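# step 3/5: fold
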Amino acid sequence: MRKIGINLHAATGLSDEDYIKAMAGVGFEACFSGVFERERQLNVARLLEKHGISYDTLHAPFDGINAMWSENEDGDAMLARLKNTVDNCAAVGVPIAVVHLSSGEKAPSITDAGRKRYGDLVEYAVKKNIKIAFENQRKLANLAWAMETFGTDEAGFCWDCGHESCFTPGREYMPLFGDRIVCTHIHDNHGIYNGDDHILPFCGSIDFEKVAMRIKESGFCGTLMLEVFSGDDPQKFLEIAAQAAKKLCAMTDK
């Protein structure tokens, strides 16, 4: 049976160590996080290993990601931040960096400057034995460009079923890129445009029978990774989250 995972501090109120201990206690076997200063990143990696949890991915920063397509120095600064994510992956032994290609309804078109920067990023990651996983947002064209441009040994697809529901209703990414999937972001919402709620599976309107079917059809056997957020009591939330993840895992593996 595949692993179930959840993002670090899906619910707040616990230290890194207490949260990771609680994750392990309810049955989570994998985790992802954002990018921290190096000492904390290393400490999180040590704590996850201590509690038998794999550190599957780091999520690169995405505030300002549209600058990657610009002709100015803001794009160079954003590229440096993405390369820092790759450096952190290499430092703590995380094999995949999840990267957005753009953000928002008015995301820029594909440009030569952006092509070059993302090419530089992927080349940099390959040298450090890190794979870039490009995540679906609102724009199909740039994701299609990335999947066509970079080989399977260089880059893959991070399927975010919640983004598919609220950012691109009616469009399915797995039939297009399911053969390139290397990681998942699993969460629910109510199918309202731009309503990126990041609630637990089975609490909104996403058809998780179809989610399970798409994952099964793709042949992906990796972690079912929740990307959820809550202000509730972290211990209680993690217990409910684990139940939801295990339910989806059973649906996917049957």
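# step 4/5: annotate
Residues 166 and 193 are 5 Å apart (CA to CA).
# step 5/5: archive (pending)
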